[in-house]
Write a structure and sequence with these properties.
The complex is a heterodimer of chains A (315) and B (253).
Chain A (H helix, E strand, L loop, with lengths): L4 H25 L7 H24 L18 H26 L5 H25 L11 H24 L5 H27 L6 H4 L7 E6 L7 H6 L5 H28 L2 H28 L15
Helix pairs in contact in A: 1-2, 1-4, 1-5, 1-10, 2-3, 3-4, 4-5, 5-6, 5-10, 6-9, 9-10
Chain B lengths: L11 E6 L8 H10 L9 E2 L7 E2 L3 E9 L5 E8 L7 H4 L6 E3 L6 E3 L9 H5 L5 E4 L4 E4 L4 H4 L12 H5 L5 E5 L6 H9 L15 E3 L30 H14 L1
Parallel strand pairs in B: 1-11
Antiparallel strand pairs in B: 1-10, 2-3, 4-5, 6-7, 8-9
Classes of the chains: A mainly alpha (315), B alpha+beta (253).
Chain lengths: 315, 253
């Protein structure tokens, strides 16, 4: 599949935003972080900025962005519509919770309940985003439970790193938060490596002979394409990434998204405050780059069934 | 509404005979001609005569080589929307622009409400949908819904443009939900197949498989080795021929 920059930015930025939002709301509601005005302003400001930037980026790739409001109507059948509805719905409870945190400096009582609801809705939005891909039977690499698990784990991972960094600016990045970040990185890495292993092992069980209905005669090879130049289908679904290239990019993704941030958070656990802050900032930066590469691979390595009509022999 | 309508008895669709399709692309050209001025207009053509021509077509003709272990055969394969009974391209649409008609099962896109998110094209395994970069909306085969019910057209023309154009009669249009229809009988007689039934979209269109091929000319009654022509049969020395050669020389001056 063609890796569109707008969708890569959308899924990584909004994923980090919802992860940060969910953890802020959870920690606030449970009283694990103080309802301190400037921490709230910075934390919710960055979370909403990441979410909103992601949602705006997703509209760049629409043919008619001015009609995007229509996408809220088909939540009964469409995961994309559900994602849109949930994305907007998340602003309401989390906006109120953020207002209470920043302006009243309280996260207790009824506000705590609102915080828990916000955390659930934010994570549900990430699941809806993942289901847009996981619901497609046409892309083998996407049509599995590994996809929502990965989106959720990576959103929590980037959220935990952001929260650790922001908390460290206020001297609030305790060992508990840092250990949570380490666990989130380990979970994200485990799920990503598991996904790659699963995809490599899954049978490519559709052939060009089956796609053309000619399997009973023998194997099928395209001798002449319908057109002389690549068309939309070939550009959008037929994107191929060389195996050697993919392996290098996977190494880069694992190093920058997981290995380096893990080491930096470990450093932050033992380092003096100023160095811990710097280490956590670098962990956020490194994981952001790593997740962009990971998301690029998520699209580039996905093979669509329609390629069977355009020369691929198995999918 | 992108939820699917309840199953209907009427299932309009195409039957494509892979045995007699010669791969001439007449159906694709006729489709393009009709639809670029009809309900799907415009069907974008960018740089049509240049090196990087690009455009939207609702019907594409592939040519495949089948290795049957006995000498092989070439199969020309027209590919267009199969108007599935349970298509994901409809249910994934976030706006309701993509829909399946309850009355005859035709799958259509409303170009006025399509936001151009392209998700329906991702959901289709058959490559039936092409995004129109110029128009910003998704385009697909309409089964010539603007012809088949069009009472201003001659009754013979009230069928899809591709069917009307096919010079070999390799395409047929009709109600595949009615077991007594001509197309249903054709499918039953020739054991027509749905493409990729294992994906569960229940395509309506059917493809008739190629008949067994003759392996050499002898099976058709022809001589197996070329025979010399009888003398004089090739012509050339008759008075008429000399006259025409003279006319040709005179006119060529």
């Amino acid at each position: 599949m063609h890796p569109a920059y707008s969708i890569i930015i959308f899924t990584t930025a909004s994923g980090a935003g919802y992860g940060l939002l969910a953890l802020l709301c959870l920690f606030g509601a449970l009283g694990l972080l103080p309802a301190e005005r400037w921490l709230g302003l910075l934390g919710f400001g960055i979370a909403f900025a990441l979410i909103t930037a992601g949602l705006l980026a997703s509209s760049w790739h629409l043919g008619h962005p001015e009609r995007a409001w229509r996408a809220f109507s088909q939540w009964r059948s469409s995961w994309l519509s559900r994602e849109g509805v949930m994305a907007v719905a998340t602003y309401v409870p989390s906006g109120l919770f953020a207002a209470a945190w920043v302006f009243v400096e309280t996260t207790e009582g009824i506000w705590a309940l609102l915080g828990l609801v916000s955390a659930v809705v934010a994570l549900a939005t990430v699941c809806c985003t993942a289901m847009i891909y996981a619901s497609l039977k046409t892309v083998r690499q996407w049509h599995s439970a590994w996809v929502p698990a990965g989106y959720l784990a990576l959103a929590l991972m980037s959220g935990a790193l952001w929260l650790s960094f922001l908390a460290s600016l206020f001297g609030l990045a305790g060992a508990g938060l840092l250990v949570l970040s380490l666990l989130a990185i380990a979970l994200g890495a485990a799920i990503k490596l598991g996904t790659w292993r699963h995809n490599a092992a899954a049978a490519k069980d559709l052939t060009s002979a089956q796609a053309t209905g000619l399997a009973k005669f023998g194997s099928v090879r395209q001798v002449e394409a319908p057109h002389s130049q690549a068309n939309y289908l070939m550009r959008e679904m037929g994107h191929r990434v060389a195996r050697k290239h993919a392996r290098k990019l996977r190494r880069l993704a694992v190093t920058t998204a997981f290995a380096l941030p893990f080491a930096l958070v470990l450093l932050a656990l033992i380092a003096p405050a100023w160095l811990a802050g710097l280490a956590l900032f670098l962990a956020v930066a490194s994981s952001s780059v790593g997740l962009l590469v990971e998301r690029w691979l998520f699209f580039a390595e996905a093979q669509h069934v329609v390629t069977l009509y355009y020369g691929a022999e198995v999918a | 509404m992108t939820s699917l309508p309840p199953p209907t008895d009427k299932k309009l669709g195409l039957v494509i005979d892979l045995d007699i399709c010669v791969g001439c692309h007449a159906c694709a050209v006729s489709c393009k001609e009709w639809n670029t001025s009809g309900a799907s207009a415009p069907l974008t053509d960018l740089d049509p005569y240049g090196a990087n021509n690009d455009g939207v077509w609702l019907n594409r003709i592939h040519s495949y080589e089948v290795d049957d272990g006995a000498g092989g055969m070439t199969v020309n394969f027209p590919r267009s929307c199969l108007h599935c009974e349970t298509p994901d391209c409809v249910t994934v649409c976030p706006t309701g622009a993509s829909y399946k008609r309850a009355e005859d099962g035709i799958v259509l896109v409303n170009p006025d409400t399509c936001i151009g998110c392209k998700l329906c094209s991702w959901a289709c395994p058959y490559g039936a949908r092409e995004f129109d970069e110029d128009d910003g909306v998704m385009k697909k085969c309409t089964l010539c819904v603007d012809r088949v019910y069009n009472e201003t057209l001659d009754p013979a023309d009230r069928q899809p443009a591709c069917v009307r154009a096919c010079p070999t009669g390799a395409r047929a249009f009709g109600d595949l939900g009615d077991p007594e229809s001509a197309v249903s009988k054709l499918v039953a007689e020739r054991e027509g197949e749905a493409l990729l039934p294992q994906l569960g979209y229940k395509p309506v269109n059917r493809y008739l498989p190629p008949r067994p091929r003759r392996r050499d000319a002898g099976e058709a009654g022809a001589a197996l080795t070329p025979q010399p022509l009888p003398s004089g049969a090739a012509g050339g020395d008759a008075a008429g021929d000399r006259f025409f050669r003279w006319v040709d020389r005179v006119l060529s001056r």
